[in-house]
Amino acid sequence: MLLPNLRVVLVETSHPGNIGAAARAMKNMGASELVLVAPERYPDPAASARAAGADDVLTAARVVATLPEALAGCACAFGASARPRHIVAEVMDARTAASRIAPMLTAGETCALVFGRERTGLTNAEMAYCTQFVHIPTHPGFSSLNVAAAVQVLCYEVRVALLALQESGEAPAPFDRLAAHDDMEQFYAHLEQVLIEIGFHDPQRPRHLMRRLRRLFARAAVEQNELAILRGVLSAVQGGKQMRRTDAQLTQISGEVPNS
Amino acid sequence: MLLPNLRVVLVETSHPGNIGAAARAMKNMGASELVLVAPERYPDPAASARAAGADDVLTAARVVATLPEALAGCACAFGASARPRHIVAEVMDARTAASRIAPMLTAGETCALVFGRERTGLTNAEMAYCTQFVHIPTHPGFSSLNVAAAVQVLCYEVRVALLALQESGEAPAPFDRLAAHDDMEQFYAHLEQVLIEIGFHDPQRPRHLMRRLRRLFARAAVEQNELAILRGVLSAVQGGKQMRRTDAQLTQISGEVPNS
């Protein structure tokens, strides 16, 4: 059984050996789509050595500059983090995450597993792009897994969940389809534009406004139909704003002082 | 939560890096007892580098010459094998194995996870020392996990099973206590001695007799009370044999030709 819709994203991995070991772990579990965000050294002989036969996964890996690029086309992005300092979204254990991911993969949705840097994990800005967080139960005193070991455990859990789904013979339980990454990005762009238009947001002095709003919506795990509502609200605000503007312009024309 | 009774046994590991990575994987999951059977290179800087903070596990590792030495004191030994060529015992998947191991650990029994060489796994003779086999579900076309990755997945499964046991608050389900490794070894020694005494077995021309019998009993996963019965049978045979001997000796004394 292959896992064609599972995407593994490694963010700024330092050691090329870990990239190779991750590729091997993926292939062992039937996964093949590897995306590398700004890897420190890649390609590298150490990556190929540790891939140990998963060279095809390694060769097909895409290298991109930023996490949002890596997540294009994904319905969800599960961030793997030993220590989510600022929890921006739902945190679940590996088995629960796999039980959520398996039916989405079966339904043809692309799901990403996102792994941060060896020492420092994901930045807050990167965490804001994850829709959920996944935690591998560990001994509290020594909780940081090697990145390839984490890839191994999570891909294993997804494989086992998919096998269980297949064996049950049941249609996957209906799930609330989360808004796709790309659609959320369009929403954030729309939201920022509206906030500028209504004078609430100055892009020259952002003061983390957009990041905070991203966190809020990521934590909410916005569903597709909810996103449609939010976009509708934004458009309605713009419509009203344009109407108000027109009022203001009319006021200007009539010689009165505009108050907006 | 620590896993004090879980023992990880690595047999003739070639790459010291894998030993270090296995130590790290163990410590991440709360396990600490590592036994190395005739490692190719150990200690080695590569092992320490990959241990990445699990140096305590590595330093405490015992090095022994043979698998039976590594298994001394164990109630059970689960062999991890991608391809059990000659299945000598029950084979179960990683989750099922963990669900069997967790209550035994809780009851204070020592359980071993046995991992073979990187390229060739366990020999048939080594497999005969395992009481059960555990299989990690993999993609059929690429089924051989890195040894440290296999340690990671199995220790993870044992940890999750133990956590579930703790959370359930239930006393672990009673299990049929398997005969301990040491007791089985004494049984095999006793069995061989009896087979010699009754003239069935010539230790100079063993022709795999003992290995075949080991396989049979390993497959049966002999329980403690069953072993007591088997030992009783062996003693009874010896008693009878001694009696027959005595008969024969008496016959000799009386001048007749002994028939035994």
Could you describe the 3D structure shown?
The structure is a homodimer of 260-residue chains. Chain A folds into two domains: 3-168, SPOUT methyltransferase, trefoil knot domain (Alpha/beta knot), CATH 3.40.1280; 181-253, Orthogonal Bundle (Helicase, Ruva Protein, domain 3). Chain A has helices spanning 16-29, 45-51, 55-59, 67-70, 94-106, 124-127, 147-168, 181-197, 209-220, 224-253; strands at residues 3-11, 31-37, 62-64, 76-80, 90-93, 111-115, 132-135. Chain A is globular. In chain A, strands 3-2-1-6-4-7-5 form a seven-stranded parallel sheet. By secondary structure, chain A is of the alpha/beta class. In chain A, strand 1, helix 1 (16-29) and strand 2 form a beta-alpha-beta unit. In chain A, helix 1 runs parallel beside helix 2 (45-51) and helix 1 (16-29) packs parallel to helix 7. Helices cover 49% and strands 14% of the residues of chain A. Chain A starts with a strand and ends in a 7-residue tail after the last helix. Chain A contains ten helices and seven strands. At the A-B interface, helix 1 and helix 7 of A face helix 1 and helix 7 of B.
